[in-house]
Amino acid sequence: MLLALLLACEPTKAPTTVDTAPIETASTPTGGTPTEPPTTTPTGGSSTTTPTGSTSTTTPSGSTSTGSTTTGSTSTSGTTSTPTDPVPPPVRFVALGDAGEGNDDQYAVADAIGTVCAERGCDFAIYLGDNFYDSGVEGVFDEQWQSKFELPYADLDFPFYPALGNHDLGLEGLGVEFWLSPIYVNYTDYSTKWTMPNEHYAFEAGNVKFIALDTTRIFFSFTEQQATFWEEEVASKSPEIDWIIAYGHHPYVSNGQHGNAGRYEGLPPSLPLADIPRGDYVKEFFDDHVCGTALVYFSGHDHNRQWIEPTCGTEFIVSGAGAKTTELVGRGNTTFFEDDTREGFMWVEVEGNRFTGAFYDKDAVLDYEQTFHL
User: Fold this and answer.
1) Where are the domains of the chain?
2) Rounded Cα gap, residues 295 and 77, in angstroms
3) Predicted TM-score (pTM) of this structure
4) For 142-173, how does the pLDDT look when each residue is reduced to its tens digit (9 = 90+)?
């Protein structure tokens, strides 16, 4: 009965992305009217909007528009220099999730982000779901937008690119009220910070393509739309893109209480009728699409910080301690770093072929930093 209800809730139209066509919102409850939110320009960036069927580019602060070229120049002696590829600007951002509490720890993490960004630079944030505990928002004028997002991050002058978590979709985290998702898309038009073009979407910054997934739908087996979306986005990346970085709420691997996809909550593969709660559809989606294609995947869901050794050709990072922590329980994954005692976030810089990630706690104390190269 639950699966039949969920299938009835699932939108039938394939969603669009930032850089393909205008946005279609998901279905609304009886009596509601879906609306088409406008495409917005992130703070400090630029955007080109084109007619339906052509392409557009949303450029976060600190990045460059795709499709630019550099031509050869002529020196004073009359010789022509050889054209060179433009050097991509560094891309700097923070990653945090499970932060929608409006509590003191959320404010502390926000202050720490401000301190680190003032020292090291930040262009934007990726926000990893469960943005509003316990059951999401009820509309674009819900007071939680202020108490759990705008006010805690008021001093951070850059856009947030959110993904949706199960708590954002109602029923205290059951996450089946899919008709709530257009509210989050529509709020983009009411905020200078919140930037969410669709339930899942993509954008490019420098030499990085970011792909935001709606893993709650994937969790409940609604995978076809995002599978097509993923393959199209990977195939259509700009020539200068060297990195694909994906993010969403649910982890593929984690040593936290939720654990590894396919064995969420420690449920064994042999347990009948447990394919959804066990995360079988998340595992299948990642095995088929994300592994080895995304160089890095960020998630939350478990309220701690982990950098797991590369699995299936991808670096997996859990940064779900944006406002609270839960214990690590051990799920068999070897980690470079893990901590469940302090709230915090990850700061990232991608420069050329180099990725640097640094975990900070809520007091802006550096706990761990690592760099790897393509």
Assistant:
1) 2-11+91-373
2) 45
3) 0.80
4) 999 999 999 999 999 999 999 999 999 999 88
